[in-house]
Amino acid sequence: MAIGVFDSGVGGLTVHHRLVERFARADFVYLADQANAPYGGRPGEEIVDLTRAGCQRLFDEGCDLVVLACNTASGVALRRLQQTWLPGLRKASGRPANVLGIIVPTIEAATGLAWEAEPERRGDKVENLDILAVFSTPATAASRVYEIEIDKRREDVAVFSESCPELARMIEAGAGRRELAEVIAGHVKAITARIGRAPDRAILGCTHYQIVADLFRQALPAGTPLIHQPDALADALAIYLDRHPEFAPGTGGRRRFLTTGAPGAQTSLAETFWGAPLTFEPA
Ligand code: DGL
User: Fold this and answer.
1) Are residues 213 and 247 in the same domain?
2) Residue of the CA atom closest to atom 9 of ligand 1
3) DSSP states of 130-191
């Protein structure tokens, strides 16, 4: 089988890039739903339907395991698909099939705790809060998934979210770096004002933002640690594959790139990140 990697657009390439480095012999099929990107301003039900269709497309391509390299799809759609769609699909196809998201591994990396670990409750007042800023799409911010799940696990971490409604669309369209730097600086300024000081750490909670991680670094105080979602997901996938030998990720090192949008070359922003020309086939 191949491993499917799904995103609304080019953002998931940041994860895919890390996965192919880490699992060099595995076969990968990347699907960008560019006909429907960006997802971040869409109603939840639409995000569920689009994510289900994307996963189905990847299962039809011969993938048994799909990685959602998209915070919006992971935060809004994954639980629903796991509860109401995957069990029937497995039964009907007689194949092992699963979908993994990006949010659980990110929260594990941000809290230093395994997802299933018992949270440590000290009960006394926390003197020095660790302030974690999460930059994300409006749908991810509205889901409050990072606040809720990190609050449950670490009483010494306070999460502040900054919704960036225009950013994924701009990155997808290959906007200029100066224009992007201005928008990013505006969001960093806004969240800093809301917190009352600079954050101690940050999550780029939309995979598109990783393409311009250097611009976030420039806008944040020097040395602010960024939790690296592609690494977090690669670590989680390594553990998952180890525990689930029924998902053998192939050995041919094949890479295919599909899009529901216009096939062909991607923007120079995506190609610069990728380090080579990147041509997508029609999905
Ligand atoms: N890259 C996606 C994410 O991680 C989605 C961006 C969008 O389509 O709005 O949230």
Assistant:
1) no
2) 40
3) EEEEEEE-HHHHHHTHHHHHHHHH-TTEEEEEEE-TTHHHHHHTT--HHHHHHHHHHHHHHH
pLDDT tens for 130-157 read 999 999 999 999 999 999 999 999 999 9
* Domain count of the fold of the chain: 2
How far apart are the CA of 238 and the centre of ligand 1, in A?
Answer: 23
Give the burial string for 125-139 (b: 16+ CB within 10 Å, else e). eeeeeebbbbbbbbb
140 CB near ligand 1 (under 6 Å): yes
Burial degree of 94 (CB within 10 A; 0-12, 13-18, 19+): exposed
Q: 4 alpha carbon to ligand 1 midpoint, in Å?
A: 17
Show the domain range for 136.
112-228
**CB distance 72 to ligand 1 below 6 Å:** yes
Residue 230 CA from chain centroid, whole number: 8
CA–centroid distance, 74 to ligand 1, in Å, is: 10
Q: Are residues 251 and 189 in the same domain?
A: no
* Chain length of the chain: 283
Q: What is the pLDDT of residues 166-215, one digit of tens each?
A: 999 999 999 999 999 999 999 999 999 999 999 999 999 999 999 999 99
Instruction: Determine the atom of ligand 1 nearest the C-alpha atom of 38.
Output: 8
Ligand 1 neighbourhood includes 70 CB (under 6 angstroms): yes
> Is the beta carbon of 170 within 6 A of some atom in ligand 1?
no
Q: Are residues 261 and 198 in the same domain?
A: no
CA distances from 116 to 76, 107, 112, 153, 273 (A): 21, 11, 12, 10, 34
